[in-house]
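Q: Okay, next protein. This is Cell division protein DivIB from Carnobacterium alterfunditum. I've checked the sequence twice, so it should be correct. Can you predict the 3D structure?
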Amino acid sequence: MKKENKKQKKQFKLHLSSLKKSAKIKNKSTGDQQFRIKKMKNQSDEKSKSFENTLQNLKKQRQKKLTTRLITLILLFSFAILVVVYFISSLSKVDIVSVSGTKEVADQEVIDVSQIKSGDDFWGVFFERKEISKKVFSELPQVKAVEINFSGLNDYTIKIEEHQTVAYLAENNRYFNILENGKIVNESRKISIGNPPIFKNFKENEALNTIIVQYQLLNENIQNSISEIEYTPSDIDDHLIRLYMNDGNEVIASIPSFAEKMVYYPDMVKKIGDQKGTFNIEVGAYFSPFEYSEEKNGAEKEEEKTTNNENSAELNLEEETQ
């Protein structure tokens, strides 16, 4: 009996332990299943949140694109309106046309030649600036350079650079500007202006161009001492000229050697003292004093001045420089 009881107890313990093991296994499997379910729920929640975020981002991007397009359309439309208003308004028309840099040429003459006037299309003038400048340059010989610039919202300034007037051509009691480039201006005046000398019998040719170059080689003091230069070609010398000086003397010279020999003029004057006469520096250097005679013409007396070649004196130019 005792053995059977022990055996039953042992079997019961074994059965109980097996039950505990099965319970543990069951509990473990239940926990694993709950963990998987929880994990799946978390994954599902994350997916749903990610989808919602994606939708929100797409909505924001779409809204941003729509806003950008709307702003672009508004700006384009506003710009188009401004352009239309600008071209309708007076701002697109030329208001004031002014001229700067002129001394000899009249401002109105420049404006008339350019044909720019108030009310003209502003941008039309802008794109034709080169053609207008060429026209002013070609029609006005005194103009050396032309530049057309903005001067305000809708104003233009025509900037002029002039050729320098180096002399005046005297003809029939009228005076014509002789420019540094050898051109003679067609417009005349009753009197000469400033210190430039008076030229006589010159035309637009090689002789005029050469005398301009020679004259500009002289220093300012000698230039200011010359009153008139007369072109007097002869059979022997096609470049012969006669100068009438402000001190009362006269000078005969040849254009090609004019500047070279006129350098000695102040020293030659000192050498002859108070005498007045003609200096011939065409070949060498000679001085001939004037002879004066008085002739009666009605109630008036006229004084005639002639050169006495018999009393001519040779001057040594090399000595004058020592």
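A: Here is a summary of the prediction. The longest helix spans residues 2-88. Residues 108 and 305 are 47 Å apart (CA to CA).
Q: Noted. On to the next one.
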